[in-house]
Design brief:
With 66 residues, the chain is of the alpha+beta class. It has one domain (9-63). The chain is 52% helix and 14% strand. It is built from two helices and two strands, in the order ααββ. The relative contact order is 0.09.
């Protein structure tokens, strides 16, 4: 499926930067973002939480609002 969308200049710049840094296409980055969002939503339905953890396994940031 082909999808056309309009995004803000800031988001477009972030997408360009992430694509360059990761050496991936913008399409691939968006596919991965959608997959991550899907996993996060499934976890939320199961009562789980999404967080960023440090190397020792301590929660540094809990991701909310998904």
């Amino acid at each position: 499926m082909r999808l056309n969308m309009t995004i803000s200049d800031d988001l477009a710049q972030a997408l360009d930067r992430m694509a360059a840094e990761s050496q991936q296409s913008k399409s691939e980055l968006l596919r991965k973002a959608l997959t991550l969002f899907e996993v996060a939503r499934e976890g939320k339905r199961e009562g789980k939480k999404l967080a960023l953890m440090d190397r020792d396994g301590h929660v540094e940031t809990e991701i909310v609002g998904l």
